[in-house]
Amino acid sequence: MHESADEHTLMRILGNNEELAAHNREHFDELGLWAINLMSAPGAGKTRLLENILSSWTEIKPYVIEGDMVGELDAIRLRRTGAEVLQICTGRSCHLDAQMVGRVLHGDSLQGKDVVFIENVGNLVCPAEFWLGEHMRIVLLSVTEGDDKPIKYPVIFHKCDAVIFTKCDLLPYVDFNVATAASNVNALNPKARIFEISAINQQGIPDFVSWLKSRLVKYKDERRSELCASPSRPE
Q: Which domain holds residue 102?
């Protein structure tokens, strides 16, 4: 079976993006900066979750890259937490890519930061294919979207480290079965950690933030070990 010209073009685009993303990862690691890519459909609660994280995790020095097609509404909200936020408007593009993120990495704004949160454009399809150089991918699934979404959009759930069921305070009012949704995620990605949260009543937020803290410690320990194992540069 012959691949179409469109498929060849897509593979070339993804290949170029992979190379740029690898460069981004190297730069993140040189800075000792842990990068998290937050992805979801529009309205699943990425910005609200970030507001909760930034307000409760006060020990870190965060940096936020906010991706939207147009406007700065979410960036304005997040700046109220005291975090430094950079807005990237993607125009007609329905996702961030490695080149967009890479433009941020060569200034002084990331110096001294611990964690960079990347809030991707709301979309369950395109962001899944475009690696940004992040260390962790987290997918949010609102209970208002239905428990079948992992089956309908398998790539993004297959390529993530954690899945968060959001707006769980609405469970009594919507047709969403947590066990079914979790089973659908596990069938695609048994290693993904699953959380149930509500930004309204704070259900699950402390446990999720505690998990993030432990993963950051793990990252810093691994980076320390890698640096100790690296041969010393000649003076």
A: 27-222
Residue 53: inside a domain, yes or no? yes
Closest to 144 measured CA to CA, from 173, 180, 184: 173
At 121, the amino acid letter reads V
Q: What is the model's pTM?
A: 0.92
How many structural domains comprise the chain?
A: 1
Structural domain contains residue 83: yes
Give the span between the Cα atoms of 140 and 40, in whole angstroms.
Answer: 5
Give the Cα separation of 23 and 177 in Å (integer): 41
Q: Is residue 14 part of a domain?
A: no
C-alpha torsion sign, points 159, 164, 170, 171: positive
CATH of the domain at 152: 3.40.50.300
DSSP-derived pairing of the beta strands 34-40 and 136-142: parallel
Among all chains, which residue has been given the structure tokens 């937490």? 81
> Could you read off the pLDDT of 18-56 as tens digits, one per residue?
999 999 999 999 999 999 999 999 999 999 999 999 999
Contact 127, 121 (CB under 8 A): yes
The tokens for 20 are 């740029």
